[in-house]
Specification:
mainly alpha; 2 strands; 6% strand
Length: 104
């Protein structure tokens, strides 16, 4: 898998899982559903969302989406990405400044 397309595929797999739970009305412990991953990437994302407390177990074999946990999870990921972008920007500016300083 190309490194440039991987994040897109991961995000799509995550959105599909969340959309299936929402479509089934499994957004509380009152209406959990059984959910199976359609492929290996979804299986990995399902496990990750369970570890993060976003997809929670209810009765044996059934799960529901914790919307508040999902919102917090997404906000945390946005902050992480923003930090990485900021770091890359600072590194780029430093590289340009160093290049200019060395040519003078």
């Amino acid at each position: 898998m190309s490194t440039s397309i991987a994040p897109v595929l991961v995000a799509a797999a995550e959105r599909r899982l969340v959309a299936r739970l929402r479509a089934a009305g499994a957004v509380s412990a009152v209406r959990p559903v059984a959910i199976d991953a359609a492929n290996r990437l979804e299986a990995v994302r399902l496990a990750r969302l369970q570890e993060a407390g976003v997809i929670r177990p209810a009765r044996p074999g059934t799960f529901y989406l914790d919307e508040d946990a999902y919102d917090a999870y997404r906000a945390q990921r946005r902050r992480f990405v923003a930090g990485v972008v900021l770091l890359a920007l600072v590194a780029g500016i430093a590289a340009v400044a160093l290049t200019i300083a060395l040519t003078l």
